[in-house]
Amino acid sequence: MNLLPLHCQQKCALLGEYQIPLPTLNDPIDHVVLGIRPEDIIIEAGNDAYTVEGKVYLEEGLGKEKLISVTVKGSQYTIRALVSAEEDWEGKTVKLRLPSQQIHWFSWNGNPEHPLNQRERLN
Known about the structure:
single chain, mainly beta, CATH 2.40.50.140, five-stranded antiparallel beta sheet, 0% helix
């Protein structure tokens, strides 16, 4: 599972150069953890609020699939995605679609020492 602790601004989570829309919440929040499974991420050329771009710096062969590690443009965050093993991915720039229905949002107080098991699911 990709777990990304992010700052929030104007009902969006900030991921590098990208603003990912938050689910509808009763109260504004300053920090959140975005969770998404590698198998739920889609490689595509789309340009919507749930698409980010980055460079593949590592690919791991898993038989019929590969697990790629992508540094998100404008950040130090890594997102891992499951992709076809038929293509060479290392060094490529890719667009990753994070389907909104597959994103898991968790509360976070902004402290990196705050353990995951004490975070509350927001959606």
